[in-house]
Each structure stands twice: as C-alpha cells, then as structure tokens.
# Entry
Amino acid sequence: MGMEQNNSGVHVDDVKLALRGHVTEGYKFIPQQQLREGDLGYRSCPSLNDRVHILVTVVVSLLSEEVVKKLRNVRLTASEMDIPQLAILTKVDEACPEAEQDPKNIYKSKYLKEQVDKFSQLLGLPVNCIFLVKNYSSEISTDDDTDAHILCALKQMIVYGDDFLTHLND
# Structure
C-alpha cells in the first residue's frame, strides 16, 4: 500500500508512527483508520531495532500535488529524526526511449535528468539521493546493466542506514 490520493493508501500519521517504531511487524494499514496507542499493532515502547533506519521513497508514476504534500510531511518528520532519505524513480525505461533501448543510458538522458531535478525540488531531496531504476517486467533473464543500477541504489540504502546507526552510537 502506498500513499495515494483521496485518503486512500497509508495514512501519513501511521507512516510517522512507523518511523518511530510504534508499528509492529506485519501490521495491515487501514486507510480510513489511524493506528492509535492501545490498538492491536501499536508498539508502545519501541527499541532502536524497531525504528526506521532509512526512509526510501519509491516513485512509480507521476505524483499528484496531494501525494507530494504527504511525502513532504513524512520527509519533514524523518529529517527531524535525522533519518537518512533516498528516493528511487522506477520504470525509467517506460518514460524514456533512450533508457528503454539501453539501460546504460539512464543517467545520460536529458529527460530523466529533468525528472530527477523536478523531483528533487518537489520533495527537497538532494539530487545525489535520487536513483533511477529500470524495472524487470517482461524479461525472462537478468541484465548486468539493469542490475548495476538496482544494486547501486541498494548499496546506498545500506551505507546510509549503517551511517545512521553508527552516528546514533557515537
């Protein structure tokens, strides 16, 4: 479940609770009902292991103004908690013919560069924290160039999360 428009999707306050570790693993979010203290699925005393160590926003399609507001709201809370943040823009091959032809062209595309810059301005994320990824959708085998972009994003998630934990222990 993502952050959709018209009060569907995860409620912003539930995401903020998850950032702080108050949402138990396996909890099923209910769009029309916020999680509250005492509810099944609410953890009243979260440990460091229960807290979010990195916030990764995955964007699949164009964002409405309403969804952007929700994402900015969550980002602000994450920033206040010093949680590192990254974003992944997916399906770049569908958005750009150059990227569809050859995954090596993802970061050479002027159009995708514009999309990254636009997303950076919308959410206030630095450009170097936004990763472009081609999805596997109809392929029956993997591709090293596609994998390289996915692994690069994954590596940065691990590095940022590890840095977050290291700074907490300093």
Helices lie at 12-20, 65-80, 92-95, 97-101, 110-123, 144-168. The longest strand covers residues 55-59. The chain is about 45% helix and 10% strand.
